[in-house]
């Protein structure tokens, strides 16, 4: 088993080795074969090389950061204690398990739920899942704000490296477009047979094909992730709408403006957006949700109505059922029975309050293991 695991581990690095080999070969083809041996004009040589090295540097920097930044996993307060695990596992009825989880999660900043309305729980990690967190079966752990597992970087793309991943796509695309654009003239000469008998002919030919091919695949992926950032969704959330206590909401994490959504990932300082340096808001545990002041007014009104109608006698239900996530609250005007305070208060400057109710019961015994391959 040990050997199999070791083999699997080596195997997972193959896509990274493949990409690195392509980059190394493209370096040889571009710098040696094209710039040194083929291009005659000195000025052209210098300009080509300067910009080439600039794009290559940015591309490698973002690629390196995406691969090697360690993924953010569940903080310890979300893990169940041994006593809680015993309690949960000795209980066979799903609704009771869910009640136990609800009680455990009472002081945790969680506002998303399972489809059945229960607390999201990973039975592999034995932890309550923070919002936007998913279990990755390749990494064998829960990953905060998991986007997808990317085999090309042999890492999960999530809260800790999403900005780097997007920059990796962007610089990869720029690199390919730049190479394709500058090689094009010599590529045409190759076909029109005016390139002479340069030994690098084939390198230049394949360089253009490879750059154009990678550019095509990167452009769609980069475009897709630009869209996702602008609406503040992860890839997983675009496939599976997040469920809040009030029900599914596909734009549940989206801020009021696209700029605010971009800042969630790229940070406040626009001057640093281009750099693969971590700048995302928050700590990955809780996220501002859409301002729902109308909803909270509505909920309070509902609550009042229940009280008036004497429906609040069933306190065990309502105590846990109305929660206000004041995670990032600068405007937490409405409080209900149980407040959930994000352990790290200065998560997001915008101050958004989300009111969540979870009347649904049901314990999703699956850990939502996701092995999502993308790219
Ligand atoms: Zn897990
Ligand atoms: Zn993973």
From TrEMBL:
Q: Does the keyword 4Fe-4S apply?
A: no
The reactions it catalyses are: L-cysteinyl-[protein] + hexadecanoyl-CoA = S-hexadecanoyl-L-cysteinyl-[protein] + CoA
**Residue span, Palmitoyltransferase DHHC domain:** 120-239
Map out region (Disordered) in residue numbers. 337-375
Alphabetically sorted, this entry's keywords are: Acyltransferase, Membrane, Transferase, Transmembrane, Transmembrane helix
Q: Where would one find the signal peptide in this protein?
A: none
Which PROSITE patterns would you find in this protein's record? Answer: DHHC
Q: Where in the cell is it found?
A: Membrane
UniProt key word Acyltransferase:
yes
Provide the transmembrane region boundaries.
Answer: 12-39, 45-64, 164-188, 200-224
Which EC numbers does the record give? 2.3.1.225
UniProt superkingdom: Eukaryota
Enumerate the Pfam families for this protein: DHHC
What membrane topology does the UniProt entry give? Multi-pass membrane protein
Q: Which InterPro entries match?
A: Palmitoyltrfase_DHHC (IPR001594), PFA4/ZDH16/20/ERF2-like (IPR039859)
User: What is the first-listed, main subcellular location in coarse terms?
Assistant: membrane
The Swiss-Prot or TrEMBL record describes its family as follows: Belongs to the DHHC palmitoyltransferase family.
Q: Domain annotation text?
A: The DHHC domain is required for palmitoyltransferase activity.
UniProt xrefs under PANTHER family? PALMITOYLTRANSFERASE ZDHHC16
By what name is this protein known?
A: Palmitoyltransferase
Instruction: Please name the source species.
Output: Saccoglossus kowalevskii
């Amino acid at each position: 088993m040990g050997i199999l695991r070791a083999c699997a581990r080596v195997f997972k690095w193959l896509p990274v080795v493949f990409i690195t080999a392509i980059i190394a070969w493209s370096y040889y083809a571009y710098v040696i074969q094209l710039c040194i041996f083929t291009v005659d004009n000195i000025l052209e040589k210098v300009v080509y090389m300067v910009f080439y090295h600039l794009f290559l540097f940015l591309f490698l920097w973002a690629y390196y950061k995406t691969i090697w930044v360690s993924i953010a996993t569940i903080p310890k307060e979300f893990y169940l204690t041994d006593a809680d695990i015993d309690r949960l596992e000795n209980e066979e009825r799903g609704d009771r398990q869910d009640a136990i989880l609800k009680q455990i999660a009472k002081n945790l900043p969680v506002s998303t739920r399972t489809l059945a309305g229960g607390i999201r729980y990973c039975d592999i990690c034995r932890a309550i899942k923070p919002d936007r967190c998913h279990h990755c079966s390749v990494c064998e752990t829960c990953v905060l704000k998991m986007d997808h597992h990317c085999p090309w970087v042999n890492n999960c793309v999530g809260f800790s490296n999403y900005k780097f991943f997007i920059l990796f796509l962007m610089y990869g695309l720029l690199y390919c477009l730049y190479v394709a654009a500058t090689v094009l003239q010599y590529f045409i000469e190759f076909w029109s047979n005016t390139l002479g008998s340069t030994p690098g002919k084939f390198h230049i030919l394949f360089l253009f094909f490879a750059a154009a091919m990678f550019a095509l695949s990167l452009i769609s992926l980069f475009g897709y992730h630009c869209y996702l950032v602008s609406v503040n969704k992860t890839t997983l959330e675009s496939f599976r709408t997040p469920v809040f206590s009030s029900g599914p909401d596909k734009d549940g994490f989206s801020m009021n403006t696209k700029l605010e959504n971009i800042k969630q990932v790229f940070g406040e300082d626009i001057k640093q957006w281009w750099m693969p340096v971590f700048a995302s808001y928050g700590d990955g545990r809780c996220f501002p949700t859409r301002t729902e002041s109308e909803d909270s007014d509505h909920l309070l009104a509902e609550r009042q109505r229940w009280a008036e109608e004497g429906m609040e006698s069933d306190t065990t239900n309502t105590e846990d059922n109305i929660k206000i996530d004041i995670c990032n609250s600068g405007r937490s005007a409405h409080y209900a029975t149980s407040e959930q305070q994000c352990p790290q208060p200065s998560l997001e400057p915008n101050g958004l309050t989300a009111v969540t109710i979870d009347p649904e019961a049901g314990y999703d015994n699956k850990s939502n293991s996701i092995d999502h391959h993308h790219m």
